[in-house]
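Please decode residue identities from the backbone states below.
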């Protein structure tokens, strides 16, 4: 148990790998993902808002009454 906790703690504070390694490639991939998410957020927010408005309009629209209803 102590070894597992120690390993986890050491891995949290371990130094990054040298340049040219997989760490640099992963860092670049992560940076691209972050940029892509920042670009997509407003678009996704707009889609959710439009979907919410369509659902709200369908739920709260006045219901049509049959002709015999008073």
């Amino acid at each position: 148990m102590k070894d597992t906790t120690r390993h986890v703690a050491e891995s949290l504070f371990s130094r990054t790998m040298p340049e040219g390694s997989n760490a640099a490639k992963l860092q670049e991939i992560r940076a691209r993902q972050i940029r892509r998410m920042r670009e997509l957020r407003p678009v996704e927010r707009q889609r959710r808002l439009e979907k919410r408005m369509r659902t709200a309009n369908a739920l709260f629209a006045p219901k049509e009454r049959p002709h015999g209803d008073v």
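Observation: The helical segments are 2-12, 22-60.
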